[in-house]
Amino acid sequence: MASTLAESAELASFPPFVRRVQAAVSTAAKDVGAEAQDSNNPARSQLRRALATNVFADPSNYGTRFAWAVATNPVITMASTDGDVQFTVNSVWDTIAGAPPLPE
After folding, report:
1. Could you tell me if 80 and 20 are in contact, meaning their C-beta atoms sit under 8 angstroms apart?
2. pLDDT tens-digit readout, 19-69
3. What is the extent of the structural domain holding 50?
4. Which one of 5, 12, 13, 51 is CB 3.0 to 4.6 Å from 71, fit for a cystine?
5. Mean of per-residue pLDDT scores for the chain
6. Does residue 14 sit within a domain?
7. In a domain, 20, yes or no
8. Is residue 102 part of a domain?
9. Is residue 77 part of a domain?
10. How many structural domains comprise the chain?
11. Over the stretch 83-103, which tens digit does the pLDDT of each residue have?
């Protein structure tokens, strides 16, 4: 468990971890790109899709950006499963896209 800020920073800058996160980001971008436009919140959809487009324009840049967000999750470590990394990438997608949260 990355329990300290120093451990989170070390994980976020560890190249094998960044590559795993990049693979998860690319998977998320593919999935977001295939989503139907949300007619109730088109601005949110546009922000999510714009991020997906930008990910494929510069994949390594976004791997690094997402690695920092993923590494700050206290349960994520280098030993985390691919599913856990993917779930965490998916959970921070809207934050990195600047999209507002869904209404409750």
Report:
1. no
2. 999 999 999 999 999 998 888 888 999 999 999 999 999 988 899 999 999
3. 5-97
4. 12
5. 92
6. yes
7. yes
8. no
9. yes
10. 1
11. 999 999 999 999 999 998 777
